[in-house]
Amino acid sequence: MAVAVKECLELQLLEVEMLLSMFPKKGEINLDEDAVPGVQRYLRNPDGALPPQLEYSIAVDVGEPKVTVELRVLLPHTYPHVAPRLFARSDALHRQQQLQLNTGLASHISSLPSGEVCVYEAVQWVKDNTLPYLEDNKISLESATKEVVVKETLHRMWIYSHHIYRQELRKKIFDSAKKLNLTGFCLTGKPGVICVEGLRENCEEFWRVIRYPNWKHISCKHVENVETDRGIDNLRLFGAFEDLQFQAHGDYGLRNDYHMDLGQFLEFLKQHQSGHIFQILFGVEGKLSDK
User: Fold this and answer.
1) pLDDT at position 2, please?
2) Which CDD domains match (predicted)?
3) Largest Cα–Cα distance of the chain, in whole Å?
4) If we measure between CA atoms, which residue out of 142, 121, 152 comes closest to residue 58?
5) Cα(21)–Cα(209) distance, rounded to whole angstroms?
6) How far apart (Å, rounded) are the C-alpha atoms in residues 273 and 270?
């Protein structure tokens, strides 16, 4: 058995030398610097312990710009009388395509005559047979990208508060809406109403910001989600983030503690295709008085 292993290791060294001459550029073959000397020491003293199995990788140019396939090689001590352990991988291929590529490589290697070195044959097979997998991957990526790009969802939140008066609070509301590219409105007075519409993550961030640290008299009464393949801007009901103030008739003194005119607000909602929201916010059906 020792003689058979010695002969196999001698063939392995010859093959490595051949590969190094065929792939002389830096980085084409990655081989531990002690791997070959370890085998050589064993060949000088075959009665000692077996050296570690030869292990290295080869960067294979498959003819596609910026694409390299790494062929990892592990040689059993009795290779080439037994098959080498080979694995091809590339960042340009997803897992299923790498599996298919390696299945084809293993099938090819098993069809070769036993007892002959075959790593260069494996390199050549990878070089000649990887492109179809890359083309399949491009097609699948393009299809996936189209599916992701064409679908967006507009998120719209209807927020109710007991009142909105403080200037610093109103500033926070308008600054946050502008920063997050949200449209809608803020209705100042008692009660107060806010509507924001835009991307879901932006609406949720707006809601988190204005509630902090602890706005007690506020709640999100209703949420609408509308999916589109034409971009969310086509679904917005409001062209900007508006400042609404509807004051009822009467003198409320220096505090400016006024109730908003619900009739004017209902008319505003209907003008923006949102009349149904009135009942959700206030619990009663909105009706405009005859003029």
Assistant:
1) 55
2) RWD_RWDD2 (cd23829), RWDD2_C (cd24163)
3) 111
4) 121
5) 64
6) 5
Least confident segment among 43-47, 157-161, 274-278:
43-47
Is residue 158 within 8 Å of residue 221, measured between CB atoms? yes
Among 149-163, 166-180, 275-289, where is mean pLDDT lowest? 275-289
Backbone phi and psi for residue 156, each to the nearest 5 degrees, phi listed first:
-130, 125
* Neighbour count for residue 268 (Cβ, 10 Å): 17
- Could you tell me the two tokens for 80? 């080439």
Helices (H), the chain: 2-22, 35-44, 95-110, 119-129, 131-149, 167-179, 200-211, 262-271, 277-282
Size (the chain), residues: 291
**Strand pairing report for 192-198 and 152-161:** antiparallel
Q: Do residues 198 and 182 touch, judged by C-beta distance below 8 A? A: yes
Q: What is the pLDDT of residues 46-80, one digit of tens each?
A: 888 899 999 999 999 988 888 899 999 999 999 99
CA pair distance 15, 164, nearest whole angstrom: 81
CB 17 within 8 A of CB 29: no
Distances (CA, A) of 141 to 94, 135, 138: 10, 10, 5
Average pLDDT, the chain: 87
The Cα 227–Cα 204 span in angstroms is 17
